[in-house]
Amino acid sequence: MGDDVPLAGLFTLLVILLLLSAFFSGSETALMSLNRYQLRHKAREGHRGARLAEKLLKRPDRVIGLILLGNNLVNFFAASLVGVTAFKIGGEPAAALGAVALTLVVLVFSEAAPKTLAALHPERLAFPAALIYYPLLKIMYPIVWLTNAASNGVLWLLGVRSGDTELQSLTREELRTVVFEAGARISTRYRSMLLSILDLEKVTVDDVMVPHNEIVGIDLDDDDDEIENTIAESQHTRLPVYRDNIDQVIGVLHLRKLANLARKELSKEMLQRLVSEPYFVPEGTPLSAQLVQFQRRRERIALVVDEYGDIQGIVTLEDILEEIVGEFTTDPADDEDDVVFEGADTFLVDATANIRELNRSQNWDLPTDGPKTINGLIVELLETIPTPKTSLTVNGYPIEIVETDDNRVRSVRIGQRLPDSIRPAQ
């Protein structure tokens, strides 16, 4: 071959072989680097290259066998060609030098460079390559089958079973990572909503409920004027109806039912006839489960009870939706800030504020696996009602007690989180 083919032809053939080697190396990396979820999405949209790539990757051992078969054949012929060409030019010393030069060229131009490019932009090479590999696999199937049979036999001896690969499901934390990495592709608001949906199973009804002492309802033991004022001033469309205290609840009144009643028709007896049966849910119910229950039962409000049946609070469908989309209430009472920035990286915080809401609004990391409020957290840690000026550190956040009552902490001052190196021992 060396006497019949001119050097120019030999060099041209060598370049073609190196390009083929680069294609095989790069396409292998590209196919293996494809995001399987993006691939499935494009395939469902009708992208031909994506559909073929998805079919090939259902049996990666076959496509890898095909690529390695082609790459090794190309590299073998390239090595033989370099040997012949170098020997023709300078004899045995040139042949040895040619082998070293070929190794460096293949390493840089046919391996490292194309694989790096393919890893950075896998779709650009994987989809066109799939158009070539899919029919080529059918043509070369007997040889590929024999090669894979031998390699799978070796894997079988090692306890590895090859077969169809399925798209593995993602865990909740993996989904959170996917949402975070979406970056500018998803707006900040939508990203926050998606993360909130993922957290619904970790949040329970007692995390978002209106606590027992803040429940607004209709007490049938009140006089008629007080009841009318409660109804007129209510910011809610549904109110619990009870006698003496909320633990003696009779039902839930939808204020819409009062729309067609004249004032003189409004009486305690009429209210009792208009109320619907109360709906009770146990504390600790995940919001995801409660959302489903609200939908199935066509309810919008539930009374949260503990293991003894005592009412702990009220949770509404609106409370759950606000966990997903954020606050949208028009209640003026809810517009009051629980956090006031004082300057110098310190905040004056109402101790009744919900810890989870503080973490979300201020990007803090206060513990949420215990008490729900700042007051509860402090009392649990100190095991007493502290006096003003008492200081403590929680998860690296310096907290100073500002105001207390006989039975609770009213307000605290919270500073920015301290670096790990200067945090006091807890």
Major sheet strand order: 8-9-12-11-10
Average pLDDT number: 83
Radius of gyration from the CA trace? Answer: 35 Å
| N- and C-termini, Cα separation | 81 Å
Our count of domains comes out at 4
Q: Please identify the structural class as seen in this structure.
A: alpha+beta
The percent range for helix content is: 40-55%
SSE sequence, one letter per element: HHHHHHHHHEEHEEHEHEEHEEHHEEE
Account of the protein in words:
Helix 10 links the parallel strand 2 (218-219) and strand 3. Strands 8-9-12-11-10 form a five-stranded antiparallel beta sheet, covered by helices on one side. A four-stranded mixed beta sheet has the order 1-7-6-5. The chain is built from 15 helices and twelve strands. Helices cover 52% and strands 15% of the residues. The protein has 426 residues and is of the alpha+beta class. The chain has four domains: 7-157, no CATH class; 169-198, no CATH class; 207-319, CBS-domain (Roll); 337-422, Uridine Diphospho-n-acetylenolpyruvylglucosamine Reductase, domain 3 (2-Layer Sandwich). It has helices at 7-33, 36-44, 48-57, 60-120, 122-139, 141-157, 172-181, 188-198, 205-208, 224-233, 268-274, 287-297, 317-325, 355-362, 374-382; strands at 210-211, 218-219, 238-243, 245-254, 280-282, 301-305, 311-316, 339-343, 346-350, 391-394, 397-404, 409-415.
